[in-house]
Design a protein that fits this description.
This protein is mainly β and 385 residues long. The protein has no helices and 26 strands. The chain has a single domain, classed as AttH-like fold (Beta Barrel), CATH 2.40.370. Strands 1, 2, 3, 4, 5, 6, 7, 8, 9, 10, 11, 12 and 20 form a 13-stranded antiparallel beta sheet that branches. It has an 8-stranded antiparallel barrel with strand order 13-14-15-16-17-18-24-25. The protein has a two-stranded antiparallel sheet with strand order 19-23. Strand 3 and strand 4 form a beta hairpin.
């Protein structure tokens, strides 16, 4: 099937844009956008195309007063593979790599709004994400990131409020990664007593620390992934310094973290992220988490949707909406009465360094045993233990 994109000179393979040369059913092409204010109001939205499952899905989740308002959507990708809309949720590319407009039309789903993301720094391309476990491709994808500001308005639970110069962060990623399309290929059996839905990429424990931050004099994108023993699985960082109306970009040679956690939970209250750049500069960034954090199950990840098959599964036309109780720092109350302890939570933060203060997106995601921090509490999307 052809689409308007096939009129361009941007083809990368001998297939039309509605197809991919990658045969893996988990192939995805996704955009993601987050924004928050210092008063602990936070939203997260995204949408994605899955060419090998003929699926297109999207979501928005909004935290307000310890409640998470969720809207999950899906449709077949064809016959409109270039349409960046699903149900009441639509994205307009106002200016490529600089500005996006998101609209959520009102309805019984209870979430509506209009949001405009405007960049404050250039996009940054991450190092490739590639790994194999027991011969199978676990992930093989690319992603670019960008910081900015978000303006507009949102309405949830019958309350309308302004989004005025909120911190914003977005990314766009494409390729193959776990948890897409309904199932992952099985190349080994899980150890007895372990949670088969925990993310670990074949590792004994898994920790992801991300800090995308924006301050008056500089911004940056930092990501580090480790196994439970603290061995580095992935590390990539970039610092962008504001100079003379432009930016001076420098890579990092190391990223280290010293985190604190709330009680015996996996919810981080913040800590210190220290980086060394290729220019030999050492930067120590103090981070204060904004809690509660978004529970990704509400967006369709982590066995999300009513069928609990996660994103990218072909489920036809779907519109789901619900509200989660986030009054506990770790456990999440679902509308059906279950209480879950999901491993994937993401939130905002306040950052400070050298007398400056700024805002950040600060996910600290873990599963299994993390020896350094003594994290042993189980995570599950089925029932908190």
């Amino acid at each position: 099937m052809l689409s308007p994109l096939d009129e361009t000179f941007m083809h990368q393979a001998p297939v039309p844009f509605a197809q991919t040369v990658v045969s893996d059913h988990r192939f995805f092409d996704r955009m993601w956008l987050a924004g928050h204010s210092k008063d602990h109001c936070h939203f997260l939205m995204g949408m994605a195309a899955y060419k090998n499952t003929n699926a297109f899905d999207g979501y928005i989740a909004v935290i307000r007063n310890n409640r998470q308002y969720n809207l999950r959507l899906a449709r077949p990708l064809l016959p409109d593979p270039a349409l960046m809309a699903v149900g009441p949720l639509a994205v307009e590319i106002v200016k490529p790599l600089e500005q996006l407009r998101i609209t959520i039309s009102p309805g019984e789903h209870g979430i509506s709004g209009e949001l405009v993301f405007t960049s404050t720094v250039p996009v940054s391309l991450e190092a490739p994400h590639r790994s194999r476990v027991n011969g199978a491709t676990v992930q093989d994808y690319m992603r670019f990131d960008q910081l900015g500001r978000v303006d507009g308005w949102l309405e949830v639970g019958g309350e309308r409020f302004s989004v005025d110069d909120w911190f914003g962060a977005r990314d766009h990623s494409w390729g193959v990664r776990p948890g897409q399309g309904g199932y992952d290929p099985l190349t080994s059996l899980p150890e007895p007593g372990t949670n088969p839905h925990d993310v670990g990429a074949g590792q004994d424990g898994f920790l992801v620390v991300v800090l995308w931050f924006d301050m008056p004099s500089l911004g940056g994108y930092l990501m580090k992934m480790e196994n439970g023993a603290g061995e580095t699985l992935y590390s990539h960082g970039r610092i962008l310094k504001r100079q003379g109306g432009g930016f001076h970009e420098v890579e990092t040679t190391s990223i280290e973290h010293d985190l604190q956690f709330i009680g015996d939970t996996r919810t981080s209250s913040g800590g210190t992220i220290t980086v060394v750049t290729t220019e030999g500069e050492r930067l120590a960034i103090e981070v204060e988490s904004l809690v509660p954090t978004i529970c990704y199950k509400g967006t369709g990840y982590d066995l999300g949707y009513a069928d609990e098959k996660g994103p990218g599964f072909h489920r036809g036309d779907v519109l789901e909406h619900d509200v989660y109780d986030l009054s506990h720092v770790e456990d999440v109350g679902l509308p059906d009465g279950r209480v879950v302890r999901p491993w994937h939570r993401e939130g905002g933060a306040i950052v400070r360094m050298n007398g400056e203060e700024g805002m950040a997106h600060f996910p600290v995601v873990s599963s299994g045993h993390i020896r350094r921090y003594g994290l042993d509490t189980p995570t599950t999307n089925l029932a908190a233990e």
